[in-house]
Design brief:
elongated; 6-stranded mixed sheet; Immunoglobulin-like; mainly beta; single chain; 50 strands; 5-stranded antiparallel sheet
């Protein structure tokens, strides 16, 4: 691609500088060729020449206009445009002839921004030549905008004090005007105030209202006011409430709650969007009980309820309206809650006193009567009994007492039976919860058959009497045992009446009665299963029944025979007895029969002697074991213990030793005499000191010879008299000694 300029005429009297510009494609290289250049000293009138084009400054967002003034004749077919150095060309917007030798062309740029800032020039082209102006700069200024939001210096219910904080900006200066723009965040209106100081106070604001505050800055030129800066969103303080609700109405009264109504609370009363409605109450009850509390209510609810109040109580109510800046209290209103069912009768106050056929029950009023007590209701039924014959499955019975009666006697009950009582109190609202207690009646003594006027004696001998025993009837508890009691008759003792007699509660055996002088003894104790029907029993048959010996009766003595039945459950025992027979003392001489008391003494003596012998044998074995363990001889060393040496025996053995030294010829004969003498002497000492007679000789035990070998470790002469034991003597030509084997 080649561009050829055959003729170029330049008019520039001062700086003849020529710049050639061409546009070529990017794929291939291009060349510019100049054929001829002529420099003239006068302007060429065949093409227009532009006057100097000045710079244009405009604020961002505004329209910019370049006006090019050219000298020459304007032709209809001439091309005219505004050329941007780095961008697209801009067509001419308007041309205007100033005179016959000069015209003006206008170029407009709409709403310029920083991206439009560049160098621009006017270009014209005609058939006779082209004209180009100088490059002029389009300067786009950014309107100022604060970087940071205003700062809050003070706040009140109706004002806000701020600092503009406009020293740091985005955009271009200079700043010729500062303004504060504010509005409610929930509103649509906006107000703007011009500010000529670093701080500003906004007045006449609404309490507890959120505001948005911005700062506006303005620079010279059209459109020099920048965008609002970052907002400061803040809220004014609440003001003190104007008053409390005028009307406080009680909508509903129940036993444990009160519903309260009042007028709706608007902003004009509360002076704050955040407020609390509190109902405070207090009351006094018996037993020095009082309570005071405050409850936060929902301000939007149409009705406010106070729960968990005590029934039948005067409650003082008042309402408190509170916001962060103050509070208003209403006057107190006294309301009595309604009655309710009473609380339970205190368990600790229930006390039951038991008898055989009745129970006395008393109680106290409920701790929480919750009104006026009108009556008490007691229902009871039997749940179990010690007597299997008593029916326990039956409908409960109910009795009622007046409000002032806190006790009752329940009659015609079964002995030994547990009854369950349920007691509850009542008000006009109904019965409260019941309190239960279990009470057991006392058991009764068994009922024995009537022996009055009936002879229960079947047979009688000198030492026995046979009676007819008839089973008793249980009453409240099963029969535990039957007992046969024998009472000895004394002429000086008052007779016991059978009908008003006291039974024998303490069981006494025959041996204890003889040693302690008791007037009676238990001859037998029979399990109830042994007497399902009438059966004979022989008193004095010399047998043992449940640990009680039934000895033969003394013929010369008289006896009363008693039959008693015993019922025992847990810690309660009842006994019923009756005299069934009397045995008179014999007047004729009876056959010789050993006295039971003497027979008993003989048995006791034999048992005592046997026990003594066993104890003696055990002690003897213990002594032998201790002695054997204490004295042990190791190898050639012999343990010798001196036990109470006798002065006379010792002197006697010294004399024998001296004789042995003088006459060694007949040693064996003399040692035989010495052994015999020592045996006799030690036997005497054993008798005196009561030593253990059980002993054996050391020689017999170990088969030692009567002589010992020469041993320097053996002492020359050692005499050890040991009483009650046989001694063996060993000696050599110069000495002898006695050794006792333990």
């Amino acid at each position: 691609c080649m561009l050829v300029l055959k003729s170029l005429i330049i008019y520039h009297p001062r700086c003849p500088k020529v710049i050639f510009e061409a546009e070529v494609s990017g794929g291939r290289s291009g060349y510019i060729a100049i054929d001829d250049i002529q420099v003239l000293s006068y302007p060429c009138d065949k093409s227009p020449h532009f006057l100097r084009l000045g710079d244009v400054e405009v604020n961002a967002g505004q329209n910019a206009t370049f006006q090019c003034i050219a000298t020459g004749r304007d032709a209809v077919h001439n091309k005219l445009w505004l050329q941007r150095r780095n961008g697209e060309d801009i067509p001419v917007a308007q041309t205007k002839n100033i005179n016959h030798r000069r015209f003006a062309a206008s170029f407009r740029l709409q709403e310029v921004t920083k991206t439009d800032q560049d160098l621009y020039r006017c270009v014209t082209q005609s058939e006779r030549g082209s004209g180009v102006s100088n490059f002029a700069q389009l300067i786009v200024r950014e309107p100022p905008r604060p970087i940071a939001p205003p700062q809050l210096l003070g706040v009140g219910p109706t004002y806000l004090l701020i600092q503009l904080n406009a020293n740091s900006i985005i955009g271009d200066g200079p700043i010729i005007l500062k303004e504060v723009e504010y509005r409610m965040t929930s509103g649509s209106w906006t107000e703007t105030h011009a500010v000529n100081a670093p701080t500003y106070k906004l007045w006449h604001l609404d309490p507890d209202t959120e505001y948005e505050i911005r700062v506006l800055l303005t620079r010279p030129g059209e459109g020099g006011t920048g965008l609002p800066g970052p907002p400061l969103i803040t809220r004014t303080k609440c003001a003190e409430p104007m008053r409390t609700p005028k009307t406080l109405k009680i909508a509903e009264i129940q036993a444990r709650r009160i519903a309260v109504d009042w007028e709706s609370l608007g902003y004009n009363i509360t002076r704050c969007h955040t407020f609390n409605v509190t109902i405070c109450y207090h009351y006094f009850r018996g037993h020095n009980e009082s309570k005071a509390d405050c409850l936060d209510m929902d301000p939007k609810a149409p009705q406010h309820v106070v729960n968990h109040l005590p029934p039948y109580t005067n409650v003082s109510l008042k309402m408190i309206l509170t916001n962060p800046e103050g509070r208003k209290e209403s006057e107190e209103t006294i309301i009595q809650t309604d009655e309710d069912v009473p609380g339970p009768v205190p368990v600790k106050s229930l006390q039951g006193t038991s008898f055989e056929n009745k129970i006395f029950l008393n109680w106290k009023e409920p701790l929480d009567p919750n009104g006026i007590i009108t009556q008490y209701e007691i229902s009871y039924s039997s749940i179990r009994s010690f007597d299997p014959a008593v029916p326990v499955a039956g409908p409960p019975q109910t009795v009622s007492n007046l409000w002032n009666s806190t006790h009752h006697v329940f009659m015609h009950l079964h002995p030994g039976t547990t009854y369950q009582f349920f007691i509850r109190a009542s008000t006009v609202k109904g019965f409260g919860p019941a309190t239960a207690i279990n009470v057991t009646t006392n058991i009764s003594a068994p009922t024995l058959p009537d022996y009055e006027g009936v002879d229960a004696s079947l047979n009688e001998t000198a030492t026995t009497i046979t009676v007819l025993l008839r089973p008793a009837q249980a009453k409240g508890a099963p029969i535990s045992a039957y007992q046969i009691v024998v009472e000895e008759l004394h002429p000086h003792r008052t007779k016991r009446e059978a009908g008003a007699m006291e039974c024998y509660q303490v069981p006494v055996t025959y041996q204890n009665a003889m040693s302690g002088g008791a007037p009676y003894y238990f001859a037998a104790e029979l399990p109830p299963g042994n007497l399902p029907e009438p059966a004979p029993f022989t008193v004095g048959d010399n047998r043992t029944y449940q640990g009680f010996w039934n000895p033969p009766l003394a013929p010369r003595k008289g006896y009363n025979i008693y039959f008693q039945a015993m019922s025992s459950v847990e810690k309660e025992t009842k006994t019923q007895c009756v005299r069934i027979a009397t045995k008179a003392a014999a007047t004729e001489e009876p056959e010789v029969i050993p006295d039971p008391a003497k027979q008993t003494d003989r048995v006791v003596k034999i048992a005592g002697i046997s026990a003594g012998i066993l104890v003696f044998i055990l002690l003897l074995l213990v002594v032998i074991l201790i002695v054997k363990k204490r004295y042990i001889c190791w190898r050639r060393h012999i343990c010798i213990r001196n036990i109470r040496r006798s002065y006379y025996s010792y002197s006697y053995y010294l004399k024998l030793a001296k004789k042995r030294k003088d006459a060694m010829g007949n040693t064996r004969q003399e040692m035989t005499h010495m052994v015999n003498a020592m045996d006799r002497s030690y036997a005497d000492q054993s008798t005196l000191h009561a030593e253990d007679p059980l002993s054996i000789t050391f020689m017999d035990q170990h088969n030692f010879s009567p002589r010992l070998p020469n041993d320097p470790l053996v002492p020359t002469a050692v005499l050890v008299p040991i009483t009650g034991r046989k001694n063996v003597y060993h000696g050599d030509n110069n000495s002898f000694f006695a050794i006792s084997y333990l």
